[in-house]
Amino acid sequence: MGPGPVNADPRVLRAMSAQLVGQYDPSMTEYMNETMELYRGVFKTANEQTLLIDGTSRAGIEAALVSLISPGDRVLVPIFGRFGHLLREIAERAGAEVHVREIEWGTVFTPAQIEQAIRETKPALLAIVHGDTSTTVAQPLDELGDICARHGVLFYTDVTASLAGNVFEADAWGLDAVTAGLQKCLGGPSGSAPATFSPRAVEVINARKSIEAGIREAGDAVSAHPIRSNYFDLSMIFDYWGPKRLNHHTEATTMLYGARECARLLVAEGVDSAVERHRLHGAAMLAGVQGLGLAVFGDLEHRMNNVVAVRIPDGVSGDAVRGELLNDFGIEIGTSFGPLRGLVWRIGTMGYNARKDTVLTTLAALEQVLRRSGASVTGGGGVGAAYEVYQDAAGS
Amino acid sequence: MGPGPVNADPRVLRAMSAQLVGQYDPSMTEYMNETMELYRGVFKTANEQTLLIDGTSRAGIEAALVSLISPGDRVLVPIFGRFGHLLREIAERAGAEVHVREIEWGTVFTPAQIEQAIRETKPALLAIVHGDTSTTVAQPLDELGDICARHGVLFYTDVTASLAGNVFEADAWGLDAVTAGLQKCLGGPSGSAPATFSPRAVEVINARKSIEAGIREAGDAVSAHPIRSNYFDLSMIFDYWGPKRLNHHTEATTMLYGARECARLLVAEGVDSAVERHRLHGAAMLAGVQGLGLAVFGDLEHRMNNVVAVRIPDGVSGDAVRGELLNDFGIEIGTSFGPLRGLVWRIGTMGYNARKDTVLTTLAALEQVLRRSGASVTGGGGVGAAYEVYQDAAGS
Questions:
Q1: Helix (H, G, I), strand (E, B) or coil at A370
Q2: Cβ-contact A301, A387 below 8 angstroms
Q3: What's the whole-number mean pLDDT along residues A330-342?
Q4: CA separation for the pair B70, B65 (Å, rounded)
């Protein structure tokens, strides 16, 4: 019940135990095509280039940024938590001239602040996190696409922590590039990064294409400014996932089986229903910790559905509580980074763990552990408040 | 029965269906430590920095090269097949001044040729493939470590296709950096890249360390020449796998389970025994295709144990034979790249598929398909010759 990775859906793990097939076996290439189509549903996009990057969610971020950014490009990174710093770091290593705007952890930017920063910095790319588990808030993105379009700025977001647990619309919101991971609301293991790229992003990336020497033929593209990475060169990855099937890496077959099953289960449930499920169980967890008498951190209006930051009461050892929950109750909750270190626990309700039984069990166990640690808690107040949320939902 | 990826060992797939645990759960960090120790056995090294890169084998190559090479460094890449071109390509994108030497596909370099090239180019790094499946030969490496040491050159090799199927000794041969993959002789799926780095390589890499801004604290390192990639920054990956457990990517838990099981099975079998198993079944397959009357490609003295290149007989459609084997017999064999395209099939005997039953079944099926395609074959000659190899081995 931490901020991720969390337990995977057992159906995903079962899908990952299937035997491998060859890289160009017709059934393998069909699985790749199915995976592309399923993730179009998850991202809510019509983008042809919707595929997997073979690595963790951080690999997806780097593939997008290193392929979109030519050295010297100006990039704007509004930072409201730890993963904004990561976007800055990756953009800097890609050779960008990075401009940042920072706000206090727990808050989000207004569209006017973003537009003002774009006017000031004239970036080629806006790179911003959607939901940042380090602060538990989600940056509203729905008005930023229009702003980027007006200023001719490419619009990238990292939805690793938010996708499928919070409302997200790649096309309706005007995104050019989006990357994710499996280990949060998608209910799978870390190690595969679903991603989608708009036709405008594809045009920018393909303009930098260079076919590698080992498989280059007469007339093939050789760019004067090739993408700095081979592994993350999206122009080559597009050709591997597309009808050309041009050899690049050897697709991580088992991770593909897992990523496909994550999306298949989400599409079968309905992506909107999955978001509503996260909203319900997240609301129950929030009510529950408040019902125990604990304070929560951050702008609740922009809280992510799938994680809540709970202030550690005075006089209580955050690490001791986490240790007792893990060792005696088998329940993991999260610690925190940076300015929040030692101040809050982060409790997740996401993916396979966004369930009534996990919420109630966690609240029951937390009450007992807090009581034993000497904290003042409202007996039954956590579970009771969560039950009320479920009863209201059932009655509505 | 292609050049890889091949069927995974079912025990590896079963290990990958285990439920996830948290990133810093004591059992997870213990699995990481166990994995490091198991791969020291597989690579035959005492290197502390022996770990997994989260991505395919190509990710392992890029992590090693981008972390070892500072832009402008001279790198020598002797090329004897497709994957030498890949090393050149990745080193170039890392900003190296790359010098190549090329020889005909199917042959290998002599130590004297390598030393001569080092004298001429004075590289900081020698990057060379061990076994290249594109040509089916393995470059002898045992004398190159001394040469590199004499000239102060770092020594890197890619053993993706050869490890555990051919004799390899990271420390005895003087390697500074070695990267691999699971999908060949290790019997697992693509998607995790075991790698090992000598103390000398670690020193070069750590001299470039920069802690990322999101988790940087007072006094932490900030390099003036940071590694160009965040995801592949080995100095940060060392800190994640080491006692500091400094957060970097979220380890790909399921792939780690798989990589650990691949190594556990190899160490239980004995790495030398696994190499001998590949030698035996590779010899049986070679004798078998020759027994069918087919010619083989490449320098047989330096042939890899785990793959053989078979010349497609005149008048036979290579693709039609491969299609019939796959669709009617459920057996996949490989096509070829570059100068060998259309000229040879590549037949593998590796990992879980390095078995007597797979060798005999493949030879029996190949005889039938060749006969139906109008080729002249020696009836029973393939299976008979393979049986002889097995009988000789049993009698010795």
A1: helix
A2: no
A3: 93
A4: 9
Q: How far apart are CA B31 and CA B20, in angstroms?
A: 12
- Contact between A85 and B213 under an 8 Å Cβ cutoff? The reply is yes
Closest Cα of chain B to A132: distance in Å? 12
The answer to whether B299 and B108 have CB atoms below 8 angstroms apart is: yes
Task: Name residues whose C-beta falls within 8 Å of residue B193's C-beta, 6 or more positions apart in sequence.
Answer: B52, B53, B54, B55, B56, B57, B58, B59, B60, B61, B63, B160, B179, B180, B181
To test the contact with chain A by mutation, choose from B11, B13, B20 the residue with the greatest count of A C-beta atoms within 10 A, namely: B20
Q: Which of A62, A332, A338 comes nearest B230 by C-beta? A: A62
| CATH code assigned to B271-395 | 3.90.1150.10
- DSSP, collapsed to helix, strand or coil, labels residue B296 as strand
Asked if B252 lies within 8 A of A247 by C-beta distance, the reply is no
Residue pair B184/B351 in contact by the 8 Å Cβ criterion:
yes
- Every domain of chain A and the residues it spans: 10-268, 272-395
Binding residue numbers of A: 346
pLDDT digits (tens, 9 = 90+) for A345-393: 999 999 999 999 999 999 999 999 999 999 999 999 999 999 999 999 9
Q: How distant, in Å, are the alpha carbons of A229, B196, B342 from that of B132?
A: 22, 19, 18
Asked if residue A292 lies in contact with residue A381, where contact means CB atoms within 8 angstroms, the answer is: yes
Among A183, A212, A254, beta carbon nearest to B250:
A183
ipTM over 0.90: yes
How far, in Å, CA of A184 to CA of A164, rounded? 9
Which pair of tokens denotes residue A39? 């993730």
Report the topology of domain B10-268: Aspartate Aminotransferase; domain 2 (3.40.640)
Query: How many whole angstroms from its chain centre is CA B80?
Result: 15
3-state secondary structure of B143: coil
d(CA A181, CA A188): 9
Q: What is the largest CA-CA distance in chain B?
A: 75
A93: which chain B residues are within 8 Å (Cβ-Cβ)?
Answer: 226-230
Confidence label for A395 from pLDDT (cuts 50, 70 and 90): confident
Topology of the domain covering A272-395: Aspartate Aminotransferase, domain 1 (3.90.1150)
Beta strands in chain A (DSSP E): 49-53, 74-79, 97-102, 125-129, 131-132, 137-138, 154-158, 177-179, 193-197, 307-311, 344-348
Task: Output the known binding site of B for substrate.
Answer: 346
**Rounded distance, CA A118 to CA A304, Å?**
26
As a whole number of Å, the CA-based R_g of chain A is: 22
Nearest CB to B5: which of A14, A23, A89?
A23
Q: How far is CA A113 from the centre of its chain?
A: 23
Q: Helix (H, G, I), strand (E, B), or coil: what is residue B44? A: coil
Binding-site residues of B, please?
Answer: 346
| Closest alpha carbon to A17 in A179, A225, A201, A257 | A257
For CA atoms B338, B344, B347, B348, the dihedral sign is: negative
Name every residue whose Cβ is closer than 8 Å to that of residue A352 and which is 6 or more positions away in sequence: A6, A7, A8, A9, A10, A187
* Per-residue model confidence as pLDDT tens digits over B288-341: 999 999 999 999 999 999 999 999 999 999 999 999 999 999 999 999 988 999
Interface size, chain A vs chain B, as Cβ–Cβ contacts under 8 Å: 217
Contact A62 B253 (CB under 8 A): no
Q: What is the pTM of this model?
A: 0.95
d(CA B188, CA A58): 23
Once rounded to an integer, what is the mean pLDDT over residues A8-15?
A: 97
Q: Rg of chain B over CA atoms, in angstroms? A: 22
